[in-house]
Amino acid sequence: MQGLAVPGHAARSYIRDSVDEQVQPAGVDIRLGEVMEFLNEGELRASSKRLPDVRPVKPVDGLYRLQPGAYKIRFLDVVAVPPDAVGICYPRSTLLRMGVTISCAVWDPGYTGRGEALMIVANPHGAVIEQGARVAQMVFIRLESRPSSLYRGSYQGENL
């Protein structure tokens, strides 16, 4: 049936090397791979973009000790969105309860890669997050009909 969320046990096949603990009733958790801090401004124009430079934040004993602020994160898991679905990424509620959120964009049909997102640590005391911790949940929605084309943007195959 089209236009419905794919249950986690079925969506697991879209997340390379996922483990049982990642499977949720309505999606699949994805794990934190890397954290980076922004070094300068980015630029977006009608016909071009320039992403800001970033520097890796080094985990200590596998833990990221993050001060309040905005970070670019890269997920550990490789996601392959099927051609008849769209992926939507949400922060896990545990992060929200810690004063941390993740902002993700839509993951188009046909996208494959180790995606990136924005992590915002709003808690004035910071947060400690283990590398490999489940930080977001991917939900896949079946499209009513096949799209006229699959994702072919500049982020296709990123971080593979």
From TrEMBL:
Q: Which Pfam families match?
A: DCD
Q: What is this protein called?
A: Probable deoxyuridine 5'-triphosphate nucleotidohydrolase
Keyword annotations from UniProtKB, A to Z: Hydrolase, Nucleotide metabolism
One GO biological process this protein is involved in is: dUTP biosynthetic process
Matching SUPFAM superfamilies? dUTPase-like (SSF51283)
Task: Give one GO term, molecular function aspect.
Answer: dCTP deaminase activity
Determine if Hydrolase is one of this entry's keywords.
yes
